[in-house]
Design goal:
Elements: H1 6-13, E1 17-20, E2 23-26, H2 29-46, H3 50-66, E3 69-71, H4 75-82, E4 91-95, H5 100-113, E5 120-124, H6 125-130, H7 135-149, E6 153-163, H8 166-171, H9 173-189, E7 194-198, H10 210-231, E8 239-243, H11 254-271, E9 280-283, H12 306-320, E10 325-327, H13 340-343, E11 348-351, H14 353-361, H15 367-380, H16 391-398, H17 407-411, H18 415-435, H19 442-448, H20 460-463
Parallel strand pairs: 3-6, 4-5, 4-11, 5-6, 6-7, 7-8, 8-9, 9-10, 10-11
Antiparallel strand pairs: 1-2
Helix pairs in contact: 2-3, 2-7, 3-7, 5-7, 5-18, 9-10, 10-11
Length: 464
């Protein structure tokens, strides 16, 4: 049910939740979990009325806090990894592009089943646009999923690839930098306490020295970090990630890591010698986002350089106290590759397209909706098709852009279809959690991560 009026929403909370000032008290946890949280999240996402959406989102976030579910920073755990007090696992960072409420439930069910500690829910700047999910909506969908499945503990919400577009930067650098700053501000307000800034798109390999090549990258990364430190809540140290090599480009080197970190630290010290810097560093070791589709629509085998990944992770920890290197574009790798990430000390691995593929390629994904999405892509995205692309390659590369326009139709799939898709996703999450060795890491996560209840003012309409 989607509540159309604010009074209707307020009346429905009676007996289930009690709103007192800027706080929520749970009165009927059973009804909340069984039915009311479904109504709340559908209202928060799909209501035509902004005041109703805002109210539903506030209720979800504060209800999560009342249940012991808090947006959290992974910073303290990553500092422990940098000191080698926590090791032997790689943190999965999962981009959810479709069915966010339902997919997040699958993640959390798998995590609870395996006693998983750290798992990150993230969304990239580009994904926010084409999936039509602003940060606060994403936060609410994941929080609602946690309430639905009975999860308790920290939720690590992350802005992935908050990236400078090189083309837009060349045309108007101030405007493009401000666009990323505005997004950072919006994300922090939404409870994203983990932010990956990506200015690696500005690395200039034509420069003579490696430090000159990285200069614009580390200068802007430091500027964004300074802004994040100014905006972060008083009791929270946001985990910031940097990037030295654009995914899909040439493989990163230890020399580039050193050049970036030296310049980055110098820039931070100009502002404040005690300022906390990044906690991890994203590198390129041979992958590409989404994989490389072959003419038949299959994905080409990737030759990932685990040796380079190991060297970069060790250098990041030993020299700079970082948690290690971060691997992007990994979800379409062969299954036997995943247990190698913890073996070489990878701090974090980003996973996205593989889950998208599970949804699209499932026998439980209705053929009529898939056909309508593909027809939409043929009309709206055909200009992206290269002359050499087959139809299969074109659809593989663009079908991620079908999730936004068809979001409501996907959320309103028949319950049996949603259940079956959720089970398929849960199986894959369980597999990956085992491979990345994050099973039975809840206790070590709780040793270092102490979530804070960050205040959130209630919308005026709920106080009347």
């Amino acid at each position: 049910m989607i509540y159309l009026q604010l009074e209707e929403l307020k009346k429905r909370t009676e007996g289930i939740l009690r709103i007192a000032g800027d706080h929520v008290e749970i009165l009927d946890a059973g009804t909340l979990q069984k039915t009311f949280i479904d109504d709340l999240i559908y209202t928060a996402v799909f209501s035509d009325h902004e005041d109703v959406r805002k109210a539903a989102r506030w209720i979800i976030r504060r209800t999560g806090a009342a249940a012991g579910i808090h947006s959290a920073s992974i910073q303290a755990l990553y500092e422990a990894m940098g000191r080698k007090e926590a090791a032997g696992f790689t943190v999965p960072a999962i981009n959810i592009r479709a069915l966010t409420y339902h997919s997040a439930q699958a993640v959390l069910r798998a995590a609870m089943k395996l006693n998983v500690g750290p798992v990150i829910f993230e969304i990239a700047r580009s994904e926010i646009d084409y999936t039509r999910q602003r940060p606060e909506e994403y936060t609410c969908a994941v929080t609602a999923a946690a309430i639905k499945v009975g999860y308790r503990g920290p939720l690590f919400l992350q802005g992935d690839h908050f990236q400078i577009n090189a083309g837009k930067f060349a045309q108007n650098p101030d405007k493009e930098v401000q666009a990323v700053k505005d997004l950072i501000w919006e994300a922090i307000e939404a409870g994203f306490y983990n932010i990956d800034v990506d200015t690696s798109t500005l690395v200039d390999l034509t420069k003579k020295t490696v430090k000159e090549q990285q200069k614009l990258n580390y200068t802007l990364a430091a500027e964004f970090t300074t802004m994040i430190r100014d905006l972060e809540p008083a009791a929270v140290t946001i985990s910031v990630g940097g990037e030295i090599g654009e995914v899909g480009g040439k493989n990163s080197t230890v020399e580039e890591l050193v050049a970036f970190m030296e310049g980055y630290q110098e820039e931070l010290q100009k502002v404040d010698e005690t300022m906390q810097g990044i906690s991890k560093i994203s590198v390129q070791t041979g992958t590409s986002h989404g994989g490389v589709p072959m003419p038949d629509g299959s994905v080409a085998e990737v030759k990932l350089d685990f040796g380079t990944l190991a060297k970069l992770s060790e250098a990041a920890r030993v020299t700079y106290g970082l948690s290690g290197a971060v691997q992007h574009g990994a979800s379409t790798l062969p299954e036997e590759a995943f247990d190698r990430f913890p073996a070489v000390g990878t701090a974090e691995v980003h996973l996205a397209t593989g889950f998208q593929n599970i949804i699209y390629d499932s026998s439980h994904f209705p053929a009529d909706i898939k056909n309508r999405i593909y027809n939409y892509l043929n009309k709206e995205c055909y200009g992206e098709k290269k002359e050499s692309d087959t139809e299969e390659q074109f659809f593989y590369k663009t079908r991620k852009k079908g999730f936004g326009p068809f979001k409501r139709e996907l959320w309103e799939l028949p319950p049996d279809h949603l259940t079956a898709l959720g089970a398929e996703l849960e199986n894959q999450f369980s597999f990956l959690f085992k491979k990345l060795h994050v099973g039975d890491t809840k206790k070590i996560m709780e040793t270092f991560v102490k979530p804070e209840d960050v205040p959130l003012k209630a919308p005026a309409g709920l106080k009347e």
